Amino acid sequence: MESSRSNNSSNSGHQGNNSATNDEEADELCPGFKDVDSFVKYGLGSVLSATKASAGLPQTGDEYDFYRSFPGFQEFCETQGDKILHCMSQIMQHHGCRSHIRDRNKLTGLEEQFDLVVDSNDVILEKVGILLDEADGVNRSQQPVMPAGFQPPKIVVSSWNRKGSDSGRGSETFRLLHAKNIARPQLKFKEKVDNSNTPFIPKIFIKPNAIKSLPSYFTNKQIRKERPEDLDVPAALADFIHQQRTQEHVEDMFAHPYQYELDHLTVPEQILSKSELQMYKPIAETKCSFIDTLEDLVALNEKLCRSSEFAVDLEHHSYRSFLGITCLMQISTREEDFIIDTLELRSEMYILNEAFTDPAVVKVFHGADSDIEWLQRDLGLYVVNLFDTHQASRALNLARHSLDHLLKFFCNVDSDKRYQLADWRIRPLPDEMFQYARADTHYLLYIYDSLRVQLLDFNHGQPGLLQSVWNKSKDISLKKYVKPIFTEESYLDLQRKQKKSFNTQQLTAFRLLFAWRDKLARQEDESTGYILPNHMMIKISEELPKEPQGIIACCNPVPPLVRQQVNELHLLVQQARDMPLLKAEIVAQKKKGLTPIKKPEVSLFGPHDTSRVSESDFPIFSPDELPVKQGMLFSDDEQGMEVDVQKTSGLMASAKITVFEEVETKNDQESLSVAQVKASRIIESFHNPFRMYLPSSDVHVNKNAKFDPSTKIYEISKRWKLQSMEQQQKELEAKKKAKQEAKEHAKKVAEERNKAKQSYQESLQNVATVRQQAAESAKGGGKKRERVASEVGESTPKPSKKLMKSAEKAQKNDPAPQDDFKPFDYNQSDLKVFAGAKSKDNTQFDPNRQAHDPKRKKNPKGQKSNFSAANRSMSYLAGKSERGFRHNWPKR
Ligand code: AMP
Ligand code: MN
Ligand code: ZN
Predict the structure, then answer these.
(1) How far is the CA of 316 from the centre of ligand 2 (A)?
(2) What integer pLDDT is reported at residue 95 of this predicted model?
(3) Which of 140, 598, 817, 828 has its CA 20 to 30 A from that of 544?
(4) Cα of 422 to ligand 1 centre, how many Å?
(5) Rounded to two decimals, what is the model's pTM?
(6) Across the beta sheet with 309-317, what order do the strands follow?
(7) Which ligand is nearest to the CA of 317?
């Protein structure tokens, strides 16, 4: 397996590069080594001895200096050092990295040298990561493989797919062909593909061989017919409506339709009994029918129902479709082979359920994991009584478990897997592909016989091992297809997998691009890899190009939809560039010789006016990071942030933080004592999480006032903004008189507190109304619509971020140095202020959070049922989302 995997990855790599230099390398991949394994073994041995040798060198310091006093040693060190540097620089050049490591004059020191090595390692590891992903099928951006000369236009000849002479098949050349020549089969589908961001619902509507009948949800065509995407509303809202409508059927919808039958299935005698090997018929003497009419399909079903076992395989296409398409089904009985056009008969294939779920008929698959999912997803087919030869091969501990290997081992047939990744949508099916597909099942029943004999022999005639293979197969047939679901966190899974360390801006770009890509892929019914391959998405996020042209430059070849939507992408990248960097990130960037990206100056408001910035634009911090990173959010030279709301207004929720404005007013109207500042700060920190959900009209300061030059607020905002260092200096001096002033202002403090208390209680009342409102509008889809619609492009606020912001804001306002800050004594504060709270978890109030937290207590007043339902619509099965994307290709 290891070696085949490595081969795969090097292949994909060449494919990705498509460069002429790969021509020679392909032939001398491992000169002097018979396979990758032996090369790796040798390589590891060399590395190990080199490490040992370097550990044996004289230690730095006295020991080394002493040795160096011998000219011989010195000379030796220098020549060896040069040799190593030369070697390193060659490796780096090979990977296209900066490599002036050897040129000592150019180097300012060891540190820079070290940086060069680290950078190069990053580049190399990144390449390895991408290649492994491609080999794993995570990033299936490969072009389809076509037989030579099949379709002349748009051909890229590349070396990676040229068979080496050792393969024994001569040097046939494969060609890569852009799939755009092929008509999209989706257009012909009777039932539209459901790419909506809602969980998969089984397609089944009649259930042959049922012991337990199908729930009413599936038999009621009326419910099923009302599909959300038929409604003329935004996709996210349609998802939500769909969710609401199907709520009462949730349990049925997620159950495996044949769970009961499979749970009550007993091993058929025919499997366990000592079997006679039944030799396969020679290909030449076997009839093979291509089935693309309903009539033929019905006839086939009859045949299959009469047989006691048949073999099945599927061919699949995933590049030009969001979910993937089952293109072909191969079936072999002992007598005949059948190739079914599942593109043509997609809506009729369900009739085969009669044979497929018949417990008396064994269905033999090789590596059925994906097939079981594809059958459900596209054809509404289920399998009862499955035997997976891949599982049998594993149980027998055979050397390899791929179908090629079993074919060679049991049938002495050399198979040719080169069409495995062919574009199976092509019609009429080229003969080479037809023959290839047929061979995938033709021998499988014989292999099934052979494996059963071996499983019995292996266990001295006892059926235990056979039984366990059969059980494993049953588990596979119990698998349920899970649709890839987009959540706000989806991008993190991919980011973690890439092992990239992104700064705040880069991560934001990555998140925005990821959401853009997912949305477009669903809409256009294309794979995410077709819209924008992972490695390009990473490159754009890393480079944050200033110009649209820079985005194009990150992509080679440029994906059609990137070219088409480059302006949208440009806006997303700009939005990411507008994110504030952490101080540490700026330092790191300076070190790299890059100038940190500065925000545009804000013309009206102070650094803490976030009223026009979406919550989601703030970096995500885990709560435990908070105390450490406080105050590092903004660089010294940064002045607030500004996001062009106009550009993204369609995506953003209207909730704004306006509470800061008050602080500005207060600060300005009277210079508060340190104690006052701290007290109000604490109170503020309790305010924010609620207040942000209030519509601006409910808040004391009218938002419009800020824009009206005749108002006091305008004046104050402006003055605040103009506050200079001098002003801050003054505040510092004022601080010295703090004690004095504290007395003087004692009265004012009390007033202040009362005011805070009052506004706090008001806000609490408002929270309840907001909740009611939201619950109300959730029913009508009114306000909810706004939020849901924003989901795809925007992540929603998190409590940690809110706290972060208020804490950070408070710190900036506080003229007192950090170290004389004493924790606020809550025992002495007027906690009755908070007694008005209607629910205990109100500081956490975040509609989006609820669905993610199963332990979350219900809100009081019984209104939340609507709410949580609404939220579930988008954060549905967050944990499962990954499953939908993950493909564990069984060994074939
Ligand atoms: P098979 O069972 O080998 O005929 O494969 C069935 C389908 O799985 C093929 O049509 C391909 O679409 C897909 N497939 C098989 N192997 C791979 C792989 N290594 N990477 C991506 N897709 C694969
Ligand atoms: Mn298969
Ligand atoms: Zn196949």
Answers:
(1) 9
(2) 80
(3) 140
(4) 9
(5) 0.53
(6) 287-291, 336-341, 325-332, 309-317, 362-365, 386-388
(7) 1
Residue 315's H or E segment, with its range, is: strand 309-317
Residue 397 Cα to ligand 3 middle (Å): 23
137 lines ligand 1 (CB under 6 A): yes
Give Cα separations from 762 to 663, 677, 755, 835 (angstroms): 17, 22, 10, 13
DSSP string, 252-268: HHHS-TTHHHHHT----
At 682 the pLDDT is: 59
Instruction: Compute, in angstroms, the gap from residue 890 CA to the centroid of ligand 2.
Output: 9
Residue entry with tokens 């801006």: 505
370 CA closest ligand 1 atom index = 8
Residue 252 sits at the vertex; the CA angle it makes with 247 and 256, to the nearest 5 degrees, is 140
Mutate to test the pocket of ligand 1, among 420, 425, 441, 889 (most ligand atoms within 8 A of CB): 420
Q: Measure Cα distances from 345 to 203, 304, 306, 378, 631 in Å.
A: 15, 17, 22, 11, 62
Average pLDDT over residues 15-38: 57
Per-residue b or e along 212-230, where b marks 16 or more CB atoms closer than 10 Å to that residue's CB? eebeebbeeeeeeeeebbe
Residue 362, strand partner residues: 309
Span from the CA of 450 to the centroid of ligand 3 (angstroms): 20
Instruction: Decide whether any atom of ligand 1 lies within 6 Å of the 791 Cβ.
Output: no
Non-local CB neighbours of 477 within 8 Å, separated by 6+ positions: 258, 262, 368, 372, 382, 383, 384, 386
Residue 567, both tokens: 């302006």
The bound ligand whose nearest atom lies closest to the alpha carbon of 889 is 1
Of 54-63, 225-234, 275-284, 870-879, least confident by mean pLDDT is 870-879
CA 383 to centroid of ligand 2, rounded, Å: 14
What are 842's two structure tokens?
Answer: 């109100």
Residue 759's pLDDT is 59
Per-residue pLDDT at 795: 36
**Ligand 1 within 6 A of 369 CB?**
no
3-state secondary structure of 327: strand
> Phi/psi of residue 317, each to 5°?
-125, 135
Taking the C-alpha atoms of residue 437 and residue 420, their distance in angstroms, rounded to an integer, is 9
d(CA 214, CA 261): 11
**Near ion ligand 3, which residues have CB within 5 Å?**
313, 440
Residue 289 has phi, psi (to 5 degrees) of -110, 140
* Helix/strand/coil percent split, the chain, to 5: 55, 5, 40
Which tens digits make up the pLDDT trace of 383-437?
999 999 999 999 999 999 999 999 999 999 998 788 888 999 999 999 999 999 9
Rounded Cα distance between 464 and 447, Å, is: 19
Whose CA is closest to atom 6 on ligand 1? 315
How far apart CA 678 and CA 459 sit, in angstroms, is: 77
pLDDT (0 to 100) of residue 374: 98
Determine contact, residues 513/533, Cβ cutoff 8 Å: no
Residue 662 identity? E
Q: Determine whether the shortest distance from the Cβ of 420 to ligand 1 is under 6 A.
A: yes
Q: Is 316 in the pocket of ligand 1 (CB under 6 A)?
A: yes
Judge if the beta carbon of residue 313 lies within 6 A of ligand 1: yes
Which residue's alpha carbon is nearest to atom 23 within ligand 1?
421
CA–CA gap between residue 389 and residue 394 (Å, rounded) = 9
CB atoms within 10 A of CB 90: 12
The residue whose two tokens read 């087919």 is 381
What is the distance in A from the centroid of ligand 2 to the CA of 465? Answer: 23
CA 889 / ligand 1 centre spacing (Å)? 8
Q: 388 CB under 6 A from ligand 1?
A: no
